[in-house]
Amino acid sequence: EEVAAFLKRHRVNVSGTDVPHPIKSFEMLCKEHKFQPFVLRNLKTFGFKQPTPIQMQSVPVAVHRRDFIANAPTGSGKTLAFLLSILHQVHSEEKSGYRAVVVSPTRELATQIYEHLRNLTTGRKVKVCLMTKANAAAQAQDPAMRQKYDILITTPMRLVHAIQNGEADLSRVRSLVLDEADSLMEKGFLEQVDEILSACTSTNLQISLYSATMPSSVEQMAKTIMKDPIRIIVGTQNA
Ligand code: ADP
Ligand code: MG
């Protein structure tokens, strides 16, 4: 099947330069994108058999380290899409501090993402930090604690607070995910997003933005923070 026909059948609309091809199965993660076998194992264990359309297209785009906007309806599996992308990039225990950050608009969502990621990293030494008041305080007291985590899941306010107090080092972050970007904008978190971006000083930073809707505020933000972005739009069932 041609790529174009495959995408059409799954209602995936994609635009941009040199767009990487979609995956048709989770097996392709290992076969074509050098994912470690544990990822496939844990996907099976937790009952994920087939990628959803947003996962098919956004994971290979992320693996190629492209900036992108992913627009797909609620319930379409955006969380697993960005968690897989992160797991491809952050698999070793380098002890060098955060290499990936997920910013989520609410604590409840951040907690769900954290639990999802804990499942996917079962049996691995990847350390995931859910930034709460309590462990932000613990990290403030003990700088060594900040080095032990690989991936950070946080709300914008909590992270900005930590940055301003010198408690979060984002200089090694290679992947920044903004989840529910529409909600981040609605809640007025643009300033916080800017501050987080300024703290991600690596020249090799990849940015992805996930959203169920694409208001102009989100388009505008994407335009100002991304380099040569790819845009992935997954249609609804009867769109
Ligand atoms: P979204 O963020 O797009 O609103 P979620 O990431 O919260 O959606 O996923 C919605 C539900 O779909 C969750 O229960 C999740 O576990 C499930 N899900 C995600 N990907 C798959 C998949 N590939 N196969 C089966 N279920 C999936
Ligand atoms: Mg979501």
Q: Name the bound molecules.
A: adenosine-5'-diphosphate, magnesium ion
Inertia-based shape:
globular
**Which structural class should the secondary elements be placed in?**
alpha/beta
Give helix % range: 40-55%
The helix/strand order is HEHHHEHEHEHHEHEHHEHE
Strand order of the largest sheet: 1-8-2-7-6-3-5-4
Tell me the radius of gyration. 17 Å
**How would a crystallographer describe the biggest sheet?**
8 strands, mixed
Q: How many helices?
A: 12
Strand content: 5-15%
Through-space gap between termini: 23 Å
Mean pLDDT: 93
Low-confidence stretches: none
Number of strands: 8
A few lines on this structure:
The chain is 46% helix and 14% strand. It has helices at 3-9, 27-33, 37-45, 53-63, 78-89, 107-120, 133-141, 143-147, 156-164, 181-186, 190-199, 216-225; strands at 12-15, 68-71, 100-103, 128-130, 151-154, 175-178, 206-211, 230-234.
Task: Write up what this structure looks like.
The structure is a single chain. An 8-stranded mixed β-sheet has the order 1-8-2-7-6-3-5-4. The chain is an alpha/beta fold. The protein has 12 helices and 8 strands. The two termini are 23 Å apart. The model has no long low-confidence stretch (mean pLDDT 93). It has helices at residues 3-9, 27-33, 37-45, 53-63, 78-89, 107-120, 133-141, 143-147, 156-164, 181-186, 190-199, 216-225; strands at 12-15, 68-71, 100-103, 128-130, 151-154, 175-178, 206-211, 230-234. The longest helix is centred in the middle third of the chain and has 14 residues, at 107-120. Bound molecules: adenosine-5'-diphosphate (ADP) and magnesium ion (MG).
